[in-house]
Amino acid sequence: MFIARALASEADLLALDEPTVGVDGESREEFYSLLRDLNATGLTVLLIEHDIGVVTTYATDIACINRQLYFDGNPDEFVETGALARAYGTDQHVLQHDH
């Protein structure tokens, strides 16, 4: 409903914090595909998401932050930089979900 209100008011920015918590995998993929389509039409989407697989799949730019900025750039480069380990420790891994 909040997204519909933002679209109806012709917002320039959509800010979302963990928008798919508790949502099944198929619905999550549809939701993120919708966000990608909205972004392609010119809507800026600011997404706070802890699922790195989702971020590296759907985001056009990534900022990795944990009290400071560890990475800012292309999702393809993010995985290779080690920013996740520097920000959150070496026991972090990127998982890709195939739903």
UniProtKB/TrEMBL annotation:
The keyword DNA repair does not apply. The keyword Hydrolase does not apply. GO terms for molecular function: ATP binding. It comes from the Archaea. Keywords: ATP-binding, Nucleotide-binding, Transport. Belongs to the ABC transporter superfamily. This is Zinc ABC transporter ATP-binding protein.
